[in-house]
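Thread title: Can someone regenerate the structure for this chain?

I was given the following input by a collaborator and told the matching structure tokens would be attached. They weren't. Posting the sequence so someone can regenerate them.
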Amino acid sequence: MIVRIFGISVLVSIAALVAAYLYGGTTALVLTAILGILEVSLSFDNAVINATILARMSEFWQRMFLTVGIVIAVFGMRLAFPLAIVWISAGLNPVEALELALNPPTDGSPTYESIITDAHTQIAAFGGMFLMMLFLGYFFERRELTWLSWIERPMMMLGSVKSSAAAIALAILVGTATFIAPDGETSTVMVAGVLGMITYIVVDGLGSAFHIEDSEGIDEVAGQHTSAGPSAFAKATGKAGFFLFLYLEVLDASFSFDGVIGAFAITANPIIIALGLGLIGAMFVRSMTVFLVRHGTLSEYVYLEHGAHWAIGALALILMYSIGTPVPEIVTGLVGIVFIAAAFISSLAYRRKHATHSIHV
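Best answer:
Regenerated them for you:
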């Protein structure tokens, strides 16, 4: 099964490396490999969160995510998104934006990389607030199993207060705009951040509007997450599946923001970025997602979902902080890996404890 799940990703990665070599020789090959490795190593939290949502989708919508979704991830976020930023910011059409990316000017005029970098404030504020709402929404929801109970249980109590997640997110946004954002960027941060919150509320709300009946009763498809996962009869289909698919794509895009921006520290060439982050990175993230779903890993390692959401919260804060102070991509990735690793170790301890208890019983 492992060969079947990861085999396509390996073949696509080899093809991407060959294409990179044909496109730009050894230099392009090395840069593509570096970007691919970085994207894979820094995206474990993304895969865990994707898996929790994908497990709730019908087989049809899972296939949609793994086919149509990969096209959106590769060509949408890794290629079209940066070009769209240049297109909008510099007033260039898509062809001119691509020409600017492939042929950097030498007369001192704005480059493709500088235009993307200048748009970091809007991107970080939007993505940061979207992920912050996701983080707060998860831990403010009442659940029986907690990981870091000393903080998760008080958060659940706070979540019983209506609109508390939105209020806290807005407070973080106002604080960022007031104390972190560079001079003259306050309104930009506020507008982009509020748009990120609105996007989360709309997409999450649409998914929660459709309910599915399972053997336990009624459960909200987008709002409730159980460690054991849904039954075969509880998986989202039709409109519910569509909105979960939409939610998953927006979430995946939010995870990609920092990676796309961070890639410009390595290269500004959109072709190499698309090959490295997209064809290699995005494909392996999806393979990891499928592996987690097919093997029931989230049910076996019960704290992985908690660790992934703590990584999301950390990423959201890092994105907001990066509006005023650059944060190395490696720091962002290591924070996520630490949370996932800690959750995995705690899950192993949980399994041993309950296995021992079962034997004694």
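The chain has a mean pLDDT of 81.
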